[in-house]
Amino acid sequence: MTVLLFYFITYNILLGAIIYALLSLPKERDYAAISKSS
Amino acid sequence: MIFLLSRLSIKDPLKLFLTLISLTRTILFLALLSLPLSLILSLQSPEEVLQGQSVLYLYLHVPAALSCFLLYGIMSCGALLNLIWRLKHAYFLSMACLSPCLLMAAITLCTGCLWGLSTWGTYWIWDARLTSFLFLTLFLMMLFILKQHPRFQNSHRSRQVLSVLILVGLIDVIFVHQSVVWFKTLHQPPSFRWDSAPTMDSEFLVPLSLSTLSFFASSLGLSMKNWLDSLLPLFNHKRGSE
Question: In the prediction, which pLDDT does B194 show?
């Protein structure tokens, strides 16, 4: 049972961190404007 | 990665920055898809004859330990590049790997203790592998705390000091890896060896390989996201001056 609890904790942390990272990635379109102007 | 780093300081950094954003997104999506798949395969794998359900720790412990080694390898390359060619971005890369590396070390240590309790009958033993890995985790914690300290923010000297410390820690990583070979330990020999084919049955090998890949993708994706965050001010400054 402990092992399943540990799976739950680990995968929650990893999936949570990945989803957060994906949502907070910088958007290419915000920076593409600089390359066009320069 | 080293090629990318050298390009970053020479030619069109913005183009490379945009490429890094798409690469990070791809790796993170790969991690997002492979993690649930590896979870399903791990939970469906059969029980081991001697260990029973405790064999499930294998699919967390080994991938986390390998990811920790991989990230420490990248950190060391970044520290070396910073020391030799004073590449600031390489230093940022090694600092970006620090927190995912610490997370992987913590997962390895916790799962190792719990696995030890169910198979050896004890949480802890002052074994060469376990002690050196505990030292590595404490060393990573020390680096993490040092990185947060105001005196270690963005000065050339602090970057050099942290890079030297990372390279000193590499000795311990090599020691952790080789401890099961050099010493007679309670810990089992490495699950994956470069010089021979795995002896593990495919019923365990397939979920283990997939979990390892998903952990690699997660830790690399998170490190690259941290790296992009540390590069952002450079480009935000340009955006501000538009």
Answer: 67
A31 to chain B: which residues are within 8 Å by CB?
Answer: 14, 17-18, 21, 235, 239
Give B88's Cβ-side CA count (13 Å radius).
11
Residue type, B166: I
Q: How confident is the model over B10-69, as pLDDT tens digits?
A: 567 777 888 899 999 999 999 999 999 999 999 998 887 778 888 899 999 999 999 999
Complex-level ipTM: 0.88
Q: How far apart are CA B228 and CA B13, in angstroms?
A: 12
- pLDDT reported for residue A31: 72
Residue A30: closest C-alpha in chain B: B239
Ramachandran sector of residue B180 (left: φ over 0; alpha: ψ -120 to 50; beta: rest): alpha
SS3 B48: strand
Please state whether A23 falls in left (phi above 0), alpha (psi between -120 and 50) or beta. alpha
DSSP-assigned states of every residue in B131-193: HHHHHHHHHHHHHHHHHHSGGGSS-HHHHHHHHHHHHHHHHHHHHHHHHHHHS--SSPPPSS-
Residue partners of B151: CB distance under 8 A and separation at least 6: B158
B178 HSE (CA, 13 A, CB side):
7
CA nearest to A32 within chain B: B18
Phi, psi angle pair for B188, to nearest 5°: -70, 160
